[in-house]
Amino acid sequence: MTTLWSLGLFAVISQSLWMVIHFFQSDRSGANGGAVIDLGTIADIPAVGEPPKLYREGKFWLVHTDQGINAYHTACTHLHCLFNWNSEAEQFVCPCHGSRFGKDGIVLQGPARRDLDRYCVRIVNAEGRMVKETDAQGQALSIPVQELTETANDASGSLLMVQVDTQRKISGINRH
To answer: Fewer CB atoms near the end CB (10 Å): N or C, the chain?
Structure first.
C-alpha cells in the first residue's frame, strides 16, 4: 500500500512540475514555435467593421479597424487563458477570470492589467520584399482605402501579400 501511495504521489508531483515548467516556458520567447503566416492578398483580409478572424494555426486573432490591421495573440495577458470574441458586446472576453478587451486590444476590465499582446503584421510583394510593417509599439498597420484601390500592386506589378510574424510578439501596454 505504501508503494502504491508513493507512486501515486510521485505521478502527481511529476505532472504538476511539468505543468509549471510548461507554463513558464510557453510564450516567453514570443515565438510559440513561431512562423510567418501568409494570409493572402490585402483583399483577402477581413474588411473594416467585420468581426475578428481567428487563425488557430498561428494562435492569433486578426482585426481590421479604422486604424488598420492587428494580430492579437490568443492568450489573455492575465494568466494566459484563451479568450474569445463576443459579437454582442464587440469585445474580447476571457472566460477564466472575466478580463475584457476592446477590438483595439486595449484592456477594458481586469483582472488583466495590460493590453493584448500583438504580432508583427507586414505587407510584402510577391518576391517577399517587405513593403510595410507594424511599428515597434505594435500600432495597427494602416491600410488606407486609397492605398487598397490605387496600389493593389507594387511597382513591379506583383500583388501585395499580408503576413503575420508570430516570432515577433509585441507586449501590450501596462494600463495599471
So the answer is: N
The predicted model scores a pTM of 0.72
The Cα 160–Cα 47 span in angstroms is 16
Q: Which comes out higher in pLDDT, residue 49 or 100?
A: 100
Give the residue ranges of DSSP H helices in 26-176.
145-150
39/13 Cα distance (integer angstroms): 42
CA dihedral 134, 139, 145, 150 (to 10 degrees): -30
> Is residue 105 a contact partner of residue 115, using CB atoms and an 8 Å limit?
yes
The answer to which of 28-32, 121-125, 140-144 has the lowest mean pLDDT is 28-32
Q: Taking CA 82 as the corner, what is the angle to CA 76 and CA 87, rounded to the nearest 5 degrees?
A: 90
**pLDDT of amino acid 33:** 55
Question: Is residue 99 within 8 Å of 110, Cβ to Cβ?
Answer: yes
Q: In this predicted structure, what is the pLDDT of residue 92?
A: 94
